[in-house]
Amino acid sequence: MTQQLKKTALYCRLSKDDERQGESLSIETQKSMLVRYAQENGLIPYEIYVDDGYSGLNFDRPDFQRMIDDVATGKIGVVVVKDLSRFGRDHIVVGQYQELYFPSKKVRFIALNDGIDTLNSHSTDYAALKNVINEFYSRDTSRKIKAAFRSRAKDGKYHSKTAPFGYLKDPDDHNHLIPDPETAPVVVKIYDLVLKGWGNHRIRDYLRETKVPVPSWYMHIRGIEDKSHMFPDEESKYIWRPDTLRLLIRNRVYCGDCVLCKSDTVFKTKKHFKTDEADWITVENTHEPIVSRETWERANELIAVKRREYKKTLNDDLNIFSGLLKCADCGKALSRRKYGSNSSHMIYVCGTYATYGSHKCTQHKIFEEDLTEAMLADIQELFSAVKKDKAKLIDLLIKNKAKNEGKALNTKDAQYKRVCKRLEEVNRLVDKLYEDNISGKINETNFVRLLSKYQQEQESILAEKEKLESETAAVREIRSCAEQFADLLERYGDITELTPEILNMLVDKIMVYEPRAVDGVMRQQIDVYYRYIGVVKLVDYGSTTYYKSGEVLTAAKKRENAKMEKRIAAVKEEMQSDEAISA
After folding, report:
1. Residue 184: strand pairing partners
2. Within-domain flag for 556
3. CA distance 287 to 255
4. Are 79 and 107 in contact (CB under 8 A)?
5. Alpha-carbon span 90 to 436, nearest angstrom
6. Total domains, the chain
7. What CA–CA distance (Å, rounded) separates 373 from 505?
8. Peptide bond into 242 cis (omega under 30)
9. Cis ω on the peptide bond leading into residue 62 (within 30° of 0)?
């Protein structure tokens, strides 16, 4: 039987960083060098294996694996590479092939430029060292690439493979984002629904019912990435997931910011892992926002709170106060229910009371009509104030917030300037003191005494300066909050009806107290915590629905009494019948 003639494998590789269209010039150079060597040294027949655009740390290269398969089946007797780095840059894996696997298969290994030929044992003495150097080169390159990415990230350069849903890559600058006219309105709609109090599941159902395609569908039809396996039928392209919506809403890219370097790779394995948030690079206002920063912040505040959704379908009743009402005594959320089985009135009661009864907390009952009327009147009053004199309202809001937080409003600018001036003087005196001590103008005793005095004064001034800076910063923050709230009021204008969007944009929470009787009138205190400024005033109103609802309660009692009278009559009739039979 004739023994099969083994061939020579001529292996060429170029990393992805140096890849160009088609085969790279370096690959062609490697081919020419290896073919010439094979022909001159009688290593015929030969076959060329090429991996163009693959890292030396990745050994799952197509032609590399094909070559190893040919070695395993005994088709190859010699492997020739330009140098060890072309074979690979992981010194452990390269060493295993060179020192263990190839010898076990009786395969000769040659690295031309490194002077390595396993037929000559002395030529492999420094192979391990060269493999380590090759890996070090790869590590160094990796560090440089990461440093370059972080540098670009700090400049706000967007460098992801694809643009986020709602955006396109700018044709003039692929590191810059521009709104996508086709998908940006979908993003705007999602944020609008969040501000209306909708949760992720309800938004998902709405997008499905209105047949809005998922982000993956746009990537597929635009040829960005093959996602055909995700869309076996027409309906599958409308299947939104709550997680997709949650990530979209949380993404700061939609308010114009770039958050980069959120993940990193493990050297050699190239596996991705999420980095700590402290290591993320955030650059604000790098591109045109799809939603305002205010809208983005409020939407994320809302989805951070688990809210019960009463609106199960698109046409049912909606709880516009969902997630906003809290019991002023136990802090539990208030639940919504009908006031009697046949009543059209809706009430809110303390969740603790509803679950455990009156031994844990009181009812804190409030009628929805009363609450809506009181909130609408309060917001309208604030809008009238901002419309009449915005500056005056801001001053009132500042005083109110400062009072609630126990902070002084006086910025003490003049005092701060005096403190800074005195600190500079003391610093100059200390410098002069040292000069006089060195020149001999002052003796050591006076030097020590004066230095101690000035150092104590320095410490005292620095403490006072830090305190004044803190107070000034607090006052500036209060003013900024008041101005932001006034701007919000202006944006929504003179409202005539409460909506979830208005409430969620203006209000953080509403604390509801137990109703109380005052001079024969039921009154109930509500603390409305508005965004940025907290409680403006205590809303204390007289309940009118409370008495109207009493009619419902009276009617229910009449029905119960009528039923009881019927039962009593039936019992009497039965007793009379029994007596007649006995007689």
Report:
1. none
2. yes
3. 9
4. yes
5. 65
6. 4
7. 18
8. no
9. no
* 453 and 520 share one domain: yes
State which amino acid sits at residue 275: T
Tell the burial category of 109 from Cβ atoms under 10 Å away from its Cβ (0-12, 13-18, 19+).
buried
* 3-class secondary structure, 340: coil
Q: Is the same domain home to 274 and 190?
A: yes
3-class secondary-structure state, position 226: coil
Give yes or no: residues 551 and 537 share one domain: no
Backbone angles phi, psi at 177, to 5 degrees: -105, 145
Q: Which domain holds residue 212?
A: 167-303
The per-residue b/e assignment along 121-144, b for 16 or more CB within 10 angstroms, e otherwise, is eeebeebeebbeebbeebeeebee
Give the pLDDT score at 550: 46
The CA distances from residue 558 to 340, 547, 551, 554, in Å, are 14, 17, 11, 6
CA end-to-end distance (rounded Å), the chain: 126
For 129-161, the pLDDT digits (tens) are: 776 776 676 676 667 666 776 777 777 788 878
pLDDT mean for each 10 residues of the chain (583 residues): 75 72 66 92 92 87 94 94 88 87 92 86 68 68 68 78 90 90 94 86 90 91 86 89 90 89 64 74 90 89 61 55 90 87 82 88 89 87 86 83 69 75 88 85 86 88 82 78 86 81 88 81 83 73 45 53 74 69 60
The pLDDT of residue 544 is 44
d(CA 293, CA 279): 23
3-state secondary structure of 167: strand
Residues 495 and 442 in one domain: yes
Q: Exposed, middle or buried by CB within 10 Å (0-12, 13-18, 19+), for 249?
A: buried
The two counts, helices (H) then strands (E), for the chain are 18, 19
Residue 330 is classified by DSSP as T
- Write a three-state SS string for 403-417: HHHCCCCCCCHHHHH
Give me the pLDDT at residue 535, please: 86
Q: Domain containing 202 — which CATH number?
A: 3.90.1750.20
* Of the candidates 26, 14, 88, 90, the residue with the CA atom closest to the CA atom of residue 54: 14
What does the alpha-carbon distance between residue 394 and residue 372 come to, in Å, rounded to a whole number? 25
What count of Cα atoms within 13 Å lies in the side-chain half-sphere of residue 113? 11
Nearest residue to 254 via CA among 203, 216, 300: 300
Identify the residue whose tokens are 């000035």. Answer: 454
The span from the CA of 225 to the CA of 162, in Å, is: 9
Amino acid at 568: I
